[in-house]
Amino acid sequence: MTANSPAVETLLKRRVQRLGPNVSTFYEEPVHLVKGEGAWVWDKAGRRYLDCYNNVAHVGHCHPKVVEAICQQANTLNTHTRYLHEGILDYADRLTATFAEPFSSVIMTCSGSEANDIALRMAQAVTGKTGIIATDHTYHGNTESVSRLSRTNPPIGGGADRVAYVPAPDSYRPLGGEAGMAHAHAFASAVEEKIAELESSGVGFSGMILCPYFANEGFPDLPMGWLAPTVEVIRKAGGVIIADEVQPGFGRTGTHMWAHQRMGFTPDIITLGKPMGNGHPVAGLVTSPEILATFRNSFRYFNTFGGNPVSCAAAMATLKVVQEEQLMENARDVGEYARQGLSQLAQKYDCIGDVRGSGLFFGAEMVLDKASKAPATEFTQRVVNGMRQQGVLINKLGIHYNVLKVRPPMVFGRAEADVFLQTLDAVLAVTPLEA
User: Fold this and answer.
1) b/e per residue, 282-303, with b = 16+ CB within 10 A?
2) What is the DSSP letter of 177?
3) pLDDT, tens digit, 9 for 90 and up, residues 202-250
4) pTM for the full model?
5) Which spans in 299-404 are helix H?
6) How far apart are CA 156 and CA 66, in angstroms?
C-alpha cells in the first residue's frame, strides 16, 4: 500500500474533523486537485493527470464557453422560478428537441437524486401504487426514498417493503447461461415475478427504475431490443418505466444522445444529472405533458434553486458545446479506437476477460482465469491504484467490482486514448494476477 504524503494526511485529518468519518475518496493515495482543463487535471504539486473518469466535466474541465455563460449570468441576475425568466424555457426547448415524442415537459432540480425522487412520485401519481422494481446492483441517488433502491449501499432498515429487486443483467455470465435474447427473456421473467409479488403484498406495482446502460451493473453488452420483453411485461402490468440517464446521457455512448434510444425503447420518465451543467449543480427530468400534469395535481413541488438562471445558463452552454463541437461523434470514434486497443491488450494479458462499452463509456472485466471467469476483484483495485500512480485516473465498478470503468470528459481524443492504453499496458505488466 502506498503511503500518503504529509500534506495529504493533513487534509484527510481535516476532512474527518469537519466532514465526519467515512467521507469517501478515490485511491489509496487520494489526489489533491487544484486545476483542470479539458481531459487533464493537476494536483497541488503541479503533477498532471489524465482524467479518464469524470463525466461531471462532460465537455471538459473548465470549458471556456460554459465558464463564460456562468459568469455572465451570475453577473446579471440569479433567482428562482417564481419569477419569470426566459433561460429555463429556452433550455427546456433545446433539451426536449433532443428527444422524440412525447417528451416535451421538464422539471429542473439540483441533483440526480432529486430528479429520481420526483420520478418515483410521478410513478405513484400515475398508477396510484407505490411498489417499485430496481436491479440488485444499482445506484440512483441518496434521498431517503431513492437510497432504498440500492442493495450495494443500503440505508438503515434496508430497502422498503415497496422495493423489489431483480438480478442485474450480466452479458459475461448471463442469466440462464445464454446470452442475447435468451438472457433478455430471463430478465423479463424475473421482473414479472417481482411485479406479482408487489401486487400480492398490497403495495401494488408502480413501475421500474433502471439505467438504460446498466452502468453500475458493469455496462453489460446488450443488443438493441434487449429490453423489449421487459418493457412488454411492465406495460401489461400498467407500470411506469423510469430511465436514469445520469451516467450515459448527453451523447456519451457515441451512437445516440440518450441510452434508451440506443437500447431501442421508450420510457415514461427520463432523469438527468451529473454532466448536465459541466460541473455546475443542475439536474432534472423530462416526461410527457400528461404525466407532468398528473404529478403537479398530486404533489406540491417547488425547488428554490432548481432551474435558476445561472444553472440554466450552464446547462444551455454545455448542451450547445456537445452539439456544436460534435462531441457525440468524437465519443463514437475515440471509443471504438480505445476498445480496439483494449482488445489487443486482452490478447496479451490473461487477466482481461471481456472488453465492452460504447462511446466514451467503456472498460474491461478483469478475471483470475478466462475459462472459469473468476472475478479478479482485488487485482482490479491494484490496477486502479497503479494507474493513479502513473498519472491516469480511472475507477472500477460492476457486480463483482472487477470492471475497469473508463468514462472521461467528452473532449477525450485518440491521443489521450493512447496515453491510457500505454499506461494500462505498463501497469498490467508489473501487477501480479492474484486473488
Assistant:
1) bbbbbbeeebbebbeeeeeeeb
2) G
3) 999 999 999 999 999 999 999 999 999 999 999 999 999 999 999 999 9
4) 0.96
5) 309-324, 327-348, 377-389
6) 39
